[in-house]
Design goal:
single chain; Rossmann fold; four-stranded antiparallel beta sheet; 35% helix; Sucrose phosphatase-like domain-containing protein; SPP-like_dom; TPP-like
């Protein structure tokens, strides 16, 4: 069995998601420039450690490789595989999966606009009025930090259609606007890993973003926190995809997610 989970706002959280009375029940998850920027519930950490000794735990993230490596708490959780850069990169045994890298490179070359061409097209509509900064992610995709109040939604909607025709998708998540090739997918990467593990299909996954929905398509079970973008934007569609939701929001929801996983493991 595999348990594949998104990290940010699913298992680890920034300080704003932690209630004042729960500060003593959390642990440091990530440090940047000497400052703690992400936390994990102590109970979640304990449960995840136990789960990772029963099944294959696969951390999944849209973060770049460099950003992923900052999450020090993962060094204490057993795992052979990890998915980073939204599925563009698979780590196996601490090294990049070269077979997957080759697959992604061939698909990027044949199925979509190049990164440079996609960025050039975005420059035609972007403006300092609403785009604060733009960054590339491991030479696979790019994203912008935007002022959500100033985004020209009609123009952006037309641009989304243009990018879709070029093999790219646009995802607006909080203050980040992602532009990602369709072939760079968490779901495809997870399927690749499950095929490597003797064609294993007994997969549980979790996540909060619409970018995580692709994992639901290759999983037997998928659970998302109540505060998630999935819950807010997809509504009844999510129910049709057999997506479960926690009853709690914030960092407490991570404990509920892992209890869900524990229950499914015990039923196996």
């Amino acid at each position: 069995m595999i348990f594949a989970s998104d990290l940010d706002r699913t298992l680890i959280y920034s300080k704003k998601f932690i209630k004042e009375g729960n500060r003593q029940d959390v642990m440091e998850a990530e440090v940047k420039d000497g400052k703690v920027i992400s936390y994990i519930s102590s109970k979640t950490f304990q449960m995840l450690g136990k789960i990772s000794r029963k099944v294959q735990f696969v951390p999944v993230t849209t973060r770049t490789m460099e950003q992923y490596k900052r999450i020090g708490i993962l060094r204490e959780i057993p795992h052979k595989y990890a998915i980073v850069a939204n599925g563009g990169t698979i780590i196996e045994g601490g090294k990049e999966d070269e077979q997957w890298k080759s697959i992604v490179e061939k698909r990027l070359e044949g199925e979509c606009l190049s990164l440079s061409e996609a960025m050039d097209r975005f420059k035609r509509i972007s403006s300092p009025v609403w785009v604060e900064k733009t960054r590339t992610a491991d030479d696979l995709f790019f994203y912008s930090i935007v002022d959500t109040q100033m985004v020209p939604m009609d123009e952006l909607s037309d641009f989304e259609k243009e990018m879709d025709a070029g093999g790219w998708r646009m995802v607006h998540h909080s203050r980040k606007l992602y532009f990602i090739p369709k072939c760079v997918s968490k779901g495809d990467a997870l399927l690749h890993i499950s095929n490597k593990i003797d064609g294993l299909r007994d997969v549980i996954s979790s996540g909060d973003s619409v970018l995580d929905i692709e994992m639901a398509g290759v999983s037997k079970y998928f659970i998302s926190p109540l505060h998630a973008e999935i819950y807010k934007t997809m509504g009844d569609i999510a129910k049709d995809l057999n997506i479960a939701f926690t009853n709690q929001s914030g960092i407490e929801s991570s404990e509920e997610i892992l209890q869900f996983v524990e229950n499914r493991i015990s039923q196996k």
